[in-house]
Specification:
The structure is a homodimer of 583-residue chains. Chain A has 583 residues and is of the alpha+beta class. Among the domains of chain A are: 12-104, Nucleic acid-binding proteins (OB fold (Dihydrolipoamide Acetyltransferase, E2P), Beta Barrel), CATH 2.40.50; 291-412, Gyrase A, domain 2. Chain A contains 16 helices and 23 strands. In chain A, the strands form five sheets. The first copy, chain A, has an eight-stranded mixed sheet with strand order 6-9-10-22-21-20-17-11, with helices on both faces. A five-stranded mixed barrel of chain A has the order 1-2-3-5-4. In chain A, strand 7 (180-182) and strand 8 form a beta hairpin. The radius of gyration of chain A is 30 Å and the shape is globular. The first copy, chain A, starts with 17 loop residues before the first strand and ends with a strand. At the A-B interface, helix 3, helix 4, strand 6, strand 7 and strand 8 of A face helix 3, helix 4, strand 6, strand 7 and strand 8 of B.
Chain lengths: 583, 583
């Protein structure tokens, strides 16, 4: 037994108790005749005291030699502190140390082990084991564990069964790029790491498991954007004999449970919004509804005046930025520059100040009179003191630009409070999306998503208009989960593959096992998957996922701590029957 | 809503209720004027009744056309059964059906969906989704889920934090063969899939996580023996500031908890046995102690008589098979043939019948008298009516042969009752074992295992005699978990790598990150890992793990259902900068 208590446990009730503690030296203060040491472990910090009068000389000397992050074990007596610290769980007491053992010394860490560290991202990643000693990272990992436990408990109590699906599966060209694993025993052949357990969970439904879930690693070999990881974790779920409504209810319940248990927040029933409505109102299929600034479409009031820019535009659309009528010319210009950056790509922006006296002042006063602008204010729900920003151009592009502006303004205005949670469902996603590059339709969700029966009549003539029984859960502007009712009929599934450009042979080769399974009594089924990394980060009030992953990879997919990936032996390559073919 | 209840839920309290059920047609009996259908889902079976008089004609006709495994939805009234079935949860009632919808038809399954199926292993694997509909497989998966939930709950309540470690890590030649994953973004380099999260969990201890666990997939590219899988699941654990005793107590507690919660069995404190004792007494480091038949060493009484075979042997050792004195000459010969098979490799076997009258009759009566044989009986703890079997030869080999015989006899004698649980700890494993092939020592557990301090004096002179702080948990003759106290000191770790034949450069290249971490304040730590597949199978009363894995691979590492591994596109190979180099 290295310790009788941990470093977060002792308080006034333990005074006069003999205790043994072990942990790391957070810091020490040497006043000459007295040495204080803050001893840290996962559970907290306890103050140790060594004093010339009361401490054995050799122990006292040893205490003076302790460096930061030394690992020590101490025996001593719990005594009352003279100056108490009400901010610390152990702030009422300290340990008068009688024995001190240095379990391990420590080199000076390359950055401070403090909540606000001086370490840069790359250094922290290289020494991630030191970074994890810091409260923000440690607490993020503990929080993640709590979330996962609550998810498992909630779903298990509803009779969901966690089933482990295989990691060594089959590569399919549909979707993102697979990571592949050469097989030594089956020369020239490869496994793939799963992008998701999609087909397996569907087979579990065919197999009668009824309610499945799994917290599972998934893999995508994509060029990494910031805050994407090549391996990521999903809460993957599937249910048989369900309609969309059943699924939404279960996972709305789960999310509500998490918010309540982990954040103490009760949220009302989640709003449900069609994809079409979300795009028209927020320019985005994952709207952040913590704040308003809904889109107001202005075509009817802004066109057919003398302003050519608007007249020639497919869409004229604006938002009212609350309280921004006071923006200076300089601030407005900066914002116009912001939307004109290549990442956003607007060609310009019109603004309308809604003065406190009810009048308007705009950058297009020579084309529009006060009554025109009043209509704009009505359409964008602008109040006195607001500023209306208006973009125009091709509809999809303009909506996406205005959505970016809306988010930027909300950030600047402090409207994206991470401790406010505004979940919603976005439903009725299109089944297909047109891909310019390949010149064909792609599945918006995946090829197993079932079209809405009432839209099936459009499938040959206007496939782009067919809606799917697909839904996303959105939280604070992030898609945290998505899913669909699946196809469970072989014929429809074949037709879908053919729509997506698969030849019958390709469909059979890649997904024959699934279509075959559908012939042996497949029940109606559907499900969804949450991105755990993102969910945990958002619940934890953070924008980035990296601190919620114990050992993340960098943007080149490298683990800089262990230095992976790395070269492997020629002998190993030979056994796998592969050769490098470097460019 | 496809159903108001499931198929295992309805009983006499529901009589006269209108219900909707959905599920699979288990079987139907058509008596002409009446049709009974057993409707099955995960939760049970409910009997449906369609009757010429009470059922609408079109529904009645449709009922007659239902085939096995059709997926249907029915509405109807719960009525009391005329002939009740007390063996079924729903045996008091049946459903008088008013509406019937066929949700999906089914081809005739390739094997019967019954507890005792007519399907062979390979067919069942190919149609695993049908196999999962069978109770034995379905219940095995549900049981596995329950075990995993209990493990998580127990450890979490003890402040263990589940941390997900990465799957894309670094390949190291030590240990078994890695599966590797070519990196597209880092050309010519490879990730490895983890054989275990060993180094990461140690880094978590350096990082102060204090108590870690994870239920995690691990990967080994080994030639598969029966009942081994290339991907398998571990309950992986690590604790800081612990001695061996602390770890044994925690995981003995966990195992006891599982036996109690899942099997209703209370077991006493686990016996602890040294490796040396286990090898001498059972010829095996994972002894099955559900039964006796301990080894009796006979050198002192059997040697220096005129029996040359024994005189020249390093070890003469026997066991007493209870009640086997009645074996016929034919049975004995069969057993002698059994030990002489190449898999066992004994060159012969001596036997001694312990007659009911206290006399002995042996195959070596011309060399040994009754008093000699009496000593053998004492050494093997043989009673009247038992048969002593004696093997001789090189010590290690002979022990291993006799151990195999002991297990075989126990199986034949019905002493391996799967519903009896006899756990124990085997401790004090050797640190190293000599490998003939490579002509060097290998780590018996792994290179991070700490030697016993009191044995350190032998490390240069007799490294094979150094014991480790390593332990295995053994249950019913299976190693279900193993672990060790780890090295937490850079110097000792370097020395260990050098003992294992690593050059300083190799050690640095492969494990530099770990030794580096040890310099920044590594706490004493240790842990263990359970094999979940095996643990669940044993708790479930089975010898083979395959039914406890949803989608297992066959002995060639293939998933015959999805047909993986498989060929991949040339384009994909090109992107990865590798070429096939088939022999």
């Amino acid at each position: 037994m290295y310790r009788s208590h941990n470093c977060g446990q002792l308080n006034a009730t333990h005074i006069n108790k003999e205790v043994t503690l072990a942990g790391w030296v957070q810091k020490s203060r040497d006043k000459g005749f007295m040495v204080w040491v803050d001893l840290r472990d996962r559970y907290g910090i306890t103050q140790l005291i060594f004093d010339e009068q009361r401490t054995d000389k050799s122990v006292f000397e040893k205490a003076k030699s302790l460096g930061r992050e030394f690992v020590i074990q101490v025996k001593g007596t719990v005594i009352e502190r003279e100056s108490k610290n009400a901010n610390m769980a152990t702030g009422d007491i300290e340990i008068l140390v009688s024995e001190l053992i240095v379990l391990n010394s420590a080199m000076l860490p390359p950055f401070t082990i403090e909540d606000d560290t001086d370490g840069g991202e790359e250094t922290r990643m290289k020494y991630r084991y030191l970074d994890i000693r810091r409260n923000p990272v440690k607490n993020a990992l503990l929080f993640r564990h709590k979330v996962a436990m609550e998810v498992r408990k909630y779903l298990s109590d509803l009779d969901f069964c966690e089933v482990e699906t295989p990691y060594l599966i089959k590569s399919t060209p549909e979707g993102a790029r697979d990571f592949v694993v050469p097989s030594r025993m089956n020369q020239g052949q490869f496994y793939a790491l799963p992008q998701s357990p999609q087909t397996f969970k569907q087979l579990l439904m065919v197999g009668g498991m009824d309610k499945y879930f799994q917290i599972v690693k998934c893999f995508r070999d994509e060029d990494l954007r910031a805050d994407r990881q090549p391996e990521f974790t999903q809460i993957d779920c599937e249910m048989a004999f369900v309609e969309q409504e059943d699924i939404l209810n279960v996972f709305e319940g789960l999310t509500r449970h998490l918010l309540k248990e982990l954040k103490g927040i009760e949220v009302a029933e989640f709003p449900r919004m069609t994809y079409e409505h979300a795009m028209k109102t927020y320019g985005n299929d994952k709207p952040d509804i913590r704040f308003e600034m809904k889109f107001g479409e202005l075509n009817s009031t802004a066109q057919h005046k003398d302003f050519g820019v608007f007249n020639s535009a497919e869409l004229v659309v604006g938002i009212a930025a609350p309280g921004c009528a006071s923006y200076t010319r300089k601030e407005i210009d900066a914002l116009i520059d912001w939307v004109k950056r290549p990442q956003i790509g607007a060609s310009g922006m019109v603004y309308v100040k809604c003065e406190e006296d009810g009048t308007f002042k705009s950058s297009v006063d020579k084309f529009y009179d006060q009554s025109d602008l009043k209509k704009w204010a009505e359409a964008t729900n602008a109040k006195a003191g607001d500023m209306i920003f208006v973009l125009s151009g091709p509809a999809d592009k303009t909506r996406s630009q205005l959505s970016a502006l809306r988010m930027e303004l909300a950030t600047r205005l402090g409207l994206r409070n991470p401790e406010v949670f505004a979940p919603l469902w976005v439903v009725d996603f299109p089944l297909l999306e047109w891909d310019e590059e390949s010149g064909r339709y792609h599945a918006m969700h995946h090829p197993f998503t079932s079209p809405k029966p009432e839209d099936m009549k459009l499938i040959e003539t206007e496939p782009g208009k067919v809606r799917a029984n697909a839904y996303d859960m959105v939280l604070n502007g992030n898609e945290i989960g998505g899913g669909s009712i699946r196809i469970h009929d072989k014929e429809l599934q074949s037709r879908m593959f053919s729509l997506l450009g698969f030849s019958p042979e390709q469909a059979e080769e890649q997904f024959g096992f699934l279509m075959n399974a559908f012939q042996f009594g497949a029940p109606p089924h559907g499900g969804l998957a949450f991105g755990l990394d993102r969910l945990v980060a958002i619940l934890g009030g953070q924008e980035t996922i990296r601190d919620f992953i114990a050992f993340p990879k960098n943007n080149s997919g490298r683990d800089v701590m262990i230095d992976a990936p790395s070269l492997i032996d020629d002998a190993q390559l030979k056994e796998l029957c592969i050769r490098l073919d470097l460019k």
